UniProtKB/TrEMBL annotation:
This is ParA family protein. Pfam families: CbiA. Residues 8-211 form the CobQ/CobB/MinD/ParA nucleotide binding domain. Gene3D superfamilies: P-loop containing nucleotide triphosphate hydrolases. Signal peptide: none annotated.
Amino acid sequence: MKDPKFVAFSTQKGGAGKTTMTVLMASYLYYVKGLKILVVDCDYPQFSIEEMRKRDSTLLEINDSFRKAVMENRRRTGLEPYPLLMVKPEDAMLKVREIIEAGNEIDVVFFDLPGTVNNRGVVNIINCMDSVIVPIAADKVILESSLAFALKIQEWLTTGKSQVKEMYLLWNQVDAREKTDLYDQYEELFEELGLQTLKTKIPDTKKYRREGSKTLDRPVFRSTVMPPDKTLLKGSRLPELAEEILSLLKS
């Protein structure tokens, strides 16, 4: 990519999947697709991705199968773990600009933001995004909260208060038993509200939360130090989502 693209999976409702999607997309694009990635953890004060990186580091010391998988990935790709910047929202863009201007080659910067738009630092970050992706689910609480968040950004866009280039809703935690026309009806409403929805829908599957274990020898899906295990990618729709996002960023 010619210039770094700024992307945030963002919503104000916990449990919607923004941090999980940030980590999985960053890991897939970096370790599998070979893009140069920077992840910025602005999720103050919990810094969820930084905590995930710490858990991965601990597992490297105590779990032989996890360490073997990570070392094999490094041997095959020649890649060390992607850089992770932990910073408060109000300082994030300055730090990122410093990294870019120092000559570091970066294709995509992913931002993990706090679940609020009542923070000036968060607003400033959102204003700089090429794409804001809002995870939604067919759950009343998550849907109402995420939709309110998206509509607030949409209001900023239409009134000229934000410079966000694109915003999309992303169906997450999709239950295969739900009727397809339910989502079609929702998307008709979203379109009436001027909101765009990504074509890819992410299924409700436990594999999205599958991290390394201190005691179990098992494939890992969500990690900051290696890609999702190939055996778990089938049916996850993660590769399809990655291709759709890349297509949007390159357009």
